[in-house]
Amino acid sequence: MAENINQAQTIEYQWAYSIMDSSRVSTFLISMLLIVYGSFRSLNMEQEARDRANGSTNCLLNPSQTSQTENNVQTLDTMQALCLPLGASISLLVMFFFFDSMQMLFAICTAIIATVALAFLLLPMCQYIIRPCSDGNKMSFGMCGRFTAAELFSFSLSVFIVCIWILTGHWLLMDAMGMGLCVAFIAFVRLPSLKVSTLLLTGLLIYDVFWVFFSSYIFSANVMVKVATRPADNPVGLVARKFHLSGVVKEAPKLSLPGKLVFPSIHNSGHFSMLGLGDIVMPGLLLCFVLRYDAYKKAQGFAGSRLTYFHCSLLGYFLGLLTATVSSEVFKAAQPALLYLVPFTLLPLLTMAYLKGDLRRMWSEPFKSLTSSKHFQDV
């Protein structure tokens, strides 16, 4: 009798044990580290750009010059924020209906983009390795541009990793490419205000909920899950079949495209925890925005509390991810992670901004000079 009770209790609390699985813990840690690293990388890029523009002056005191000094950075406006969920939906449908006929194109484009993103991710490590034996000068490659030795080393290493991924299809290499895409997107795409952030995340929440929960009623399949888990034919295998080299070249494995991060369980063989890159990148853009705002207020001389907006949003992201994980274990079904991540990151931020009196400024013109308002407060 006691044994039956223990078994029943074990089954009842199975979801709690699943959350502590190594795959789940890895998902939590890696996703948060990517957001933190990408946000600080973006802030550092902004500081370097303003330093180049303003000489030795404090780079955070002149945010209006950002667009002039950072040509590689894309700042989303209101219309782009509203259109992004629509564009994502069209892309999802294209991959759902035409994946078989376009999978070679998808695989090649993904490999090219991931190579550049992974090179960006590896660049600081390569700079640290190359620094003792390089003067940092750029070498000219004609129309391709000028590059430092560290940039060439990081790109070469990235090409090598992507080539090994194509040959082996290993999940760890796919994760490395996905991490590069996350960091690059957070670093090079910026949200200008809390208004744009709210519109973007709300639209993506609706997009995520619709394609996970309701797409099966229209398309007789869960479009989001099917696209995320569908493997592509390996370009090496296709080339081998075209030139009748199948007997010479070893059969290349199918490729799971890096639109997600997967982490295997140590205790449960064959079990993987999966998190879409959008569930990292989109909340990450919001956290990157509030980190820039925290740094800007500090540079303006406003004393801040220990709990910054960035800390508040990062804690909210952790709680949202935890809630999404519990829901997936309880309901035993795929969950739209943004359904939990958006409210848990956005609502505490809006509440904190309202209580601190920053909501109106953050909503429309967060980086407008605060010097005059500070002067009136002091008087």
From TrEMBL:
Spans traversing the lipid bilayer: 81-99, 105-126, 147-167, 173-191, 198-219, 272-295, 307-325, 337-355
**What InterPro entries does the entry give?**
Peptidase_A22B_SPP, Preselin/SPP
Q: Does the keyword Nucleotide-binding apply?
A: no
Molecular-function GO term, any one: hydrolase activity
Q: Where is this chain's protein located in or outside the cell?
A: Endomembrane system
Main location class: membrane
Please verify whether the record's keywords include Transmembrane.
yes
Q: Which UniProt keywords apply?
A: Hydrolase, Membrane, Transmembrane, Transmembrane helix
A GO cellular-component term linked to this record:
endomembrane system
SMART domains linked to this entry: PSN (SM00730)
For membrane topology, the record states: Multi-pass membrane protein
To which protein family does this belong? Belongs to the peptidase A22B family.
Q: What is this protein called?
A: Signal peptide peptidase-like 3
Q: What is the lineage of its organism?
A: Eukaryota, Metazoa, Ecdysozoa, Arthropoda, Hexapoda
